[in-house]
Every structure is written in C-alpha cells, then in structure tokens.
C-alpha cells in the first residue's frame, strides 16, 4: 500500500470515528508536512471534501499569472478551482525555515508550463498557498516535465551570469548582461504584485539588500524549443520562489512569490 493510500485510509477511519462520537471534524489537522501535502494532492485530484481539513477557514490560495492574480479565500472558494485535475509534481519539495508551530515549503507542478508555489501552514492546516504561473490567465501551456541535460547545461550558463547581478553595487549595465531589454520582473507579495520592465526598472529593486542565496535544488523545467525555463527558491524574505524564462541566453521573465507584504 502506498504512503498516500495509507494516509487517506487512516484519515477515513479517523473521520468515521469522529462522526461516530459526534465530534466536529474541524478539529482534524495533519500531523506532518508529508501528510498535509498528500491530503492536498488528493483534494485537488477530485476529493474536494478534504479541503476543509487541508485549509484553515481563512486560508488563502492565490494564482499569479502574467496579467493578473486570482485570489480564493477559504475552502469553499478554493473548491472552485480545486478538483479540476491531478497535480503532477516535478522536482523536490523544498522545506523552508519556519517559526515553531508553522510549516513552510515550496513545490513545483507540471501544469501551466511549470508552476511554482509557496505554502505556509499553521497547526497542521494551510493558511497560504501562493503560486506563480508562466502564462497569462487565459493561457493554455501544456503540462511539462523536467528539462533535458542540454537545457540544464544552457541554464547553468545563464545562472552563472545572473549570480551577483543583484545586490548593492549592481548597475543597469550589469543587469543588461543577463536580462533582455524588454525583460519583465514581477514580485507577488501577500497583498500586491509589483512589476518592473527592463534593466532600468529592475535596478530599482535589484540594488537593495544582499545577494540572494539559493535554498535547495534548482528545478530545470521543460520548455519550448528556443526557450529555457527553471525555478529556484532563495533566502529573500525568509524563503521566496521564482520562475525564470530565457531566450537566446537572456532572461525574459523573472516572476517571484514572496511570503511578506509589500
């Protein structure tokens, strides 16, 4: 029996016990990140009745596209988008530092051309689930897998040029070595999305703070011919996740989710 089946079976037994005793199922909460993520995958794969267990009553899910952010608050609203199909994860789950009583992690999925999400859970239930997708809201990018070795080698070269381009002392000229003239960088905060076009505007945020340090493994994503795509988690704001796309060796999109208000 797989671990996912064991988890769901044990939850089913527990819920039956709760019902028999006349207790409230609202008290149910996951006991580990593994259990919570497995329940969440089940909920999104066609078992929306699990959403009340997975998400806190005021838990929020956001999906940030190139042109807008959709927000869903509470299990009932999240049910509008959950259950539309199985979420196929790619790459590793990356666990992030968190205060006592909280779990924080990033994960990556195949939908929409490669999606990256940040999660925060308190007392065994998700309170934030913020995702960034590499397409407009009406896009139709196909599901993808991991990039091949040749693409990963090409990404290595771009990332090497990107390294050190952010931080005090950077310049438009330094950023222009890795960002295309019409490149777009976006930062999705808990309460707003900021957008910066071209190296000149990107400089306004890139020159502050230290150089971002990567947490965990970079995830190289399959992309259309002529493009490169990857995702990475950094230590910015305690753990932020970004999606990158590049054409002809130059970054054209750099879209991030940050776990802070902006």
Give a short overview.
With 262 residues, the protein is of the alpha+beta class.
Element-by-element helix/strand order: HHHEEHEEEEHHEEHEEEE
Q: Name the helicity range.
A: 25-40%
Low-confidence stretches: 1-10, 12-27
Strand order of the largest sheet: 2-1-6-5-4-3
How is the biggest beta sheet arranged?
Answer: 6 strands, mixed
Report the strand count. Answer: 12
Number of domains: 2
Features:
globular, alpha+beta, 262 residues, Nuclear Transport Factor 2, Chain: A, 12 strands, 6-stranded mixed β-sheet, 7 helices, disordered N terminus
What does this structure look like?
By secondary structure, this protein is α+β, with helices and mostly antiparallel strands. It has two domains: 3-132, Nuclear Transport Factor 2, Chain: A (Roll); 149-257, Nuclear Transport Factor 2, Chain: A (Roll), CATH 3.10.450. The protein has seven helices and twelve strands. The protein has helices at 3-21, 33-44, 51-54, 74-78, 149-162, 172-175, 198-206; strands at residues 55-64, 69-73, 94-96, 102-109, 115-122, 125-132, 179-188, 193-197, 214-221, 227-234, 240-247, 250-257. The strands form two sheets. Strands 2-1-6-5-4-3 form a six-stranded mixed β-sheet. It has a six-stranded mixed β-sheet with strand order 8-7-12-11-10-9. A hairpin with a 4-residue loop joins strand 7 (179-188) and strand 8 (193-197). The longest helix is centred in the first third of the chain and has 19 residues, at 3-21. The model is unreliable at 1-10 and 12-27 (pLDDT under 50).
